[in-house]
Specification:
- 34% of the residues lie in helices and 19% in strands.
- It is α+β, with helices and mostly antiparallel strands and 226 residues long.
- Strand 4 and strand 5 form a beta hairpin.
């Protein structure tokens, strides 16, 4: 019987010897809610969004060359998914792993135990999974900011917002939003500049009126030396 027929209640009535309860999905046990597995591609999208909004990430490289990592008494070669060059760490190697694949990852034991894994060249290696990438409140803050990426910010609003931050150093989100006099939503205008990499917002906390906003270094040389 086809899938549409299986979903048709009238078809179920025509099948003798089978009650409706016999085709229901089993109910989850009390106290153990079912959690849908997050596909790896969705986790990679979360990872890239977080990296784009993290002012500590200077550069991101995909598929770096394989490295030698200690595993017990042995050393194995492993190709990480990404390498981050951070302001506080010259090279951070990252694997983005779905929960279903964690059991097969060679460094699962160290990941579960929270033990550091360092390559022979001194670079640190970590695993990012749904548990870390979708931790709250960061993931909700990142999604709120990324939702503003298509917000149009006029030249005048850009200059006023950025000049306000140049004058005060770090400003409150509500004050920066007040600088956007041409935008329908001043907060969305400020967050759109965060997506562009012009301002930095603390993504580790919820979006609030007092959320701190500051300028980010320009991703290209400033010819005027500002």
């Amino acid at each position: 019987m086809s899938t549409p027929a299986l979903l048709d209640s009238s078809a179920l009535l025509e099948r003798p010897g089978q009650r409706r309860s016999a085709v229901r999905s089993p109910s989850p046990r009390r106290g153990a809610p079912l959690v849908a597995a997050v596909p790896r591609q969705a986790l990679i999208a979360d990872f890239l969004a977080i990296a784009a909004l993290d002012p500590g990430v200077e550069r991101l490289k995909a598929a770096p060359a394989p490295i030698r990592l200690p595993l017990g008494d042995a050393v194995i070669e492993h190709a990480a998914d990404f390498e981050q060059v951070r302001t506080d760490e010259p090279g951070l190697l990252v694997d983005v792993v779905a929960e279903a694949d964690l059991s097969r990852h060679p460094f699962r034991t160290a990941y579960v135990a929270g033990e550091p894994v360092v390559a022979e060249d001194g670079r640190r290696f970590i695993i990012e999974s749904a548990a870390s990438l979708r931790a709250e409140p960061r993931i909700s803050t990142v999604r709120l900011i990324m939702a503003c990426r298509r917000t149009y910010v006029s030249a005048g609003d850009r200059v006023r917002i950025l000049h306000h931050l140049d004058e005060c150093g770090t400003g409150r989100l509500v004050d920066c939003a007040g600088m956007a006099i041409n935008a329908q939503d001043g907060v969305a205008a400020v967050l759109a500049l965060a997506v562009e990499g012009l301002v930095a917002v603390d993504i580790g906390r919820p979006i609030l009126p007092e959320t701190a906003v500051r300028r980010r270094p320009l991703p290209y040389p400033d010819p005027f030396g500002f």
